[in-house]
Amino acid sequence: MSTHETRPGSTGGADTPGPLHGGPDDDYTPEQLATMSREDLDLLGARYDGVEILHVDPGPEPGSRLEKRALRQVGLVWTLSGVFAFAFLVVYAGSGWFLPDWHWAENDGDTWSTLFNPLLGLTMGLSLALIGVGLVLFTKKLLPHETAVQDKHDGSHFDRVTTGATLTTGYKKSGLARRKLLTRSLAFMGGGVGLMLIAPLGGMIKNPNKGNPLGTTAWARGVRLVRYDGSPVRPSDQEPGSLETVFPAVPGGNRQADASTMLIRLRPEQLAQDIPRRGQEDFGYGDYVAYSKICTHAGCPVSLYEQETSRILCPCHQSQFDVTQGAKPVFGPATRALPQLPITVDDEGYFVARSDYVEAVGPTYWNRERI
After folding, report:
1. How much is the pLDDT for 158?
2. Which residues are bridge partners to 52 per DSSP?
3. Could you tell me if residue 74 is inside a domain?
4. Low-confidence residues of the chain: pLDDT under 50
């Protein structure tokens, strides 16, 4: 039997004229190889490839109690992996359909809202972990174990044929073809895990944020201004120069950070100096004005009010806003005025909003104009 260079990276003689080498192509023609079974090709390739078998453990006997128990274990683990994968899909896609709404702004602090992300992580983590557990059990308890030393060659037709036979024989030895429980649990797990990994990409196809969530709050026409405890506010409840934080009288309103509002009653001398912003001359009610509590610089809560200087201070970066000038910034890094909430009173004499804020609250973003 003639030989050619077979070090790693060589062609095994495949680039030279005549019969291909690197395996005994001169001993076996392609026609002869085509008539041999996969098992025979596997053994032939091992023999000519210099394989030395050190130890063979054939695994559990087909149909034995040991095999059946191992099959149930692996099948159960992979089925559970699929169950957790589909549970991930239920949690992820079920919001608003058959599960409680997960929207954090409306249910901040609610049990379902706080469990949303942990449930996603738990179900995905368990699904992926069980895949690994199932693979370990399958390998250790069902596959035949063989310890061998092999001298690898590459490049010849003989090597390609026998290598293909080795791969297909390995699949046959795995028993997947006859172990229907494993193939069904594997298919169930694969379908669930595949959908689980693809599902988060749905947010790139369809925007889950409908409407204008960055530009709107829960305030609307006729919504009452209430304190944190839910009690409504009348014009006679506050002393001149005082400030009170109010929220929209809607479910979860006192937990919506973007809707928190400062209701300020101006003193007579402040009211005389008041210069409303253009187009917002009627946003106040009598000596009352209402401004967003969210700083337009970095989103910190602004609630430090100096009635002597008519300034609202942000404790984070020391921005200051003058309430007698439409809450425009007069000091610090903020460049936008605090949005003003238009207010009035209802038939019962309680403060209500006339509409939502006419501009988005909070820090500036790329398409917002400075006012």
Report:
1. 64
2. 149
3. yes
4. 1-23, 96-98, 102-109, 366-367, 369-371
* Cα distances (angstroms) measured from residue 357 to each of 40, 266, 303: 80, 20, 18
Closest CA to 260 of 232, 302, 198, 320: 302
Q: What is the CATH number of the domain that holds 277?
A: 2.102.10.10
Residues 203 and 234 both lie in one domain? no
- Same domain, yes or no: 148 and 230: no
The C-alpha angle 23, 29, 30, rounded to 5 degrees, equals 95
Residue 218: inside a domain: no
Can you give the pTM of this predicted structure? Answer: 0.50
**Which positions ≥6 away from 223 have C-beta within 8 Å?**
248, 249, 250, 352, 353
Asked if residue 194 and residue 49 are part of one domain, the reply reads yes
Whether residue 179 lies inside any domain: the answer is yes
Q: What is the pLDDT of residue 62?
A: 79
- Beta carbons of 276 and 287 less than 8 angstroms apart: no
Give the model's pLDDT for residue 8: 39
Torsion angle in degrees (nearest 10) through CA of 212, 276, 290, 356:
-20
Q: Quick one: how far is CA 193 from the chain centroid?
A: 15
Residue 277 lies in a domain: yes
Residues 50 and 165 in one domain: yes
The parent domain of residue 343 ranges over 225-353
Q: How many separate domains does the chain show?
A: 2
Task: Name the token pair of 355.
Answer: 């509409």
Minimal CA–CA distance to 96: which of 86, 87, 106? 106
**What is the number of H-type helices and E-type strands within the chain?**
9, 12
| Residue pair 320/312 in contact by the 8 Å Cβ criterion | yes
Write b or e for each residue in 220-255: b if 16 or more Cβ atoms lie within 10 A of its Cβ, otherwise e: eeebbbbeeeeebbebeebeebebbebbbbbebbbb
Rounded-to-integer distance, Cα 321 and Cα 334, Å: 9
